[in-house]
What does this fold into?
Amino acid sequence: MPEEVNVETAHRLTDDRNALAGAPDRLTELIEVIILAIVAVATAWSGYQAAQWDGRQAHDYGDSSRLRFEAGEASTLGGQQRLMDVSTFNTWIQAHQQGNDSLAALYERRFSPEYKVAFDAWLETKPFASDDAPPGPAYMPEYHNALNEHAAELNDEADAVFEEGTEARETADRYVRQTVLLATVLFLIAVAQRFHYRRARLMATSVAGVLMVVALVGVVLLPRL
It folds into this structure.
């Protein structure tokens, strides 16, 4: 009879210890489930944002290439226009020196509007009587080639858009780094669940929780699309 009582008491104490040991484990499992849920959502969001910023990068780089193509086209046309104006000016010089005013007037009418403004300003410097006069209208401050200036503006815009694309790529890379950090949290939780020793499991779960907070702060601080 006493032996039966001792055995029964031993079983009861063992059951009580198991019950007390199981309560913290259930709490730990609940914490792990919460961490897994948060990390799953944060990982999906971070991956989505990385894809969005990659798309922005591709779009910006495409726009930059288009603007540079347009700038090259405008620069080529501007160079051709200037070459035509200079060539027409040289023939005007010949007609003027020969005293053929009607032919010279014909060449004047063929100047581009920008070159004609510079040409009139150049004539006011008395170029045939003054050695200090500029060599030609293209050297006058009044001369502006609208196509070349437009090409310069397009190149500046292309540079700005390209920089925006580079920033978008860097933002996407930062989101990927946060995703890797979140994956580390998942790894630690998986390892923690293999521990039977309560302290080791709690320690691994705690480290995972800290990394999760760091990753979430990083995700929140990044720009979003």
Remarks:
- Residues 1-24 have pLDDT under 50 and may be disordered.
- The chain has one domain: 27-221.
- The chain is about 85% helix and 0% strand.
